[in-house]
Amino acid sequence: MITYTEKGAGLHAAIGAAGLALWCADNVWCSTDDAAVQAIIDAYTLDDARAPVIELIKDSARLRILAFLPDWKQSNLNARMNELNLTRFTRELVAEELSEIAAMQAIWNQAKAIRQASNDHEAALNALASFEAVAAYDISAGWPG
Question: With helix as H, strand as E and coil as C, how does the chain read?
């Protein structure tokens, strides 16, 4: 017999990854191997429950950044900024180049704001002290517009 404690979807994924199964039938928790599944349930920590949510937060941040700043554009932006910085060693930048830097910095600031929101989400998640709170954490709020 399984003594089940709800610890989030990651617990069920961990059980499945071990090649085991857990299900509820008529309000009784059953498994393919009660001892092995119970050991996984008992060993599953709050940090284990946070891990898949943190991955979702990081993926959300990555997708938000890539939506306006794909990898190729990030590479081009960095290369161009390096060119402009090297130019500063040989001459003063002209107004057009300074405007270009300001535009690139504004784009980069958007990415940094998303990264900060991701860090804030992760800190908030790490401050939660229960499996229930981790399972209920809403990663959709608090991202820059």
Answer: CCCCCCCCHHHHHHHHHCCCCEEEECCEEEECCHHHHHHHHHHCCHHHHHHHHHHHHHHHHHHHHHHHCCHHHHHHHHHHHHHHHHHCCCCCCCHHHHHHHHHHHHHHHHHHHHHHHHHHHHHHHHHCCCHHHHHHCCCCCCCCC
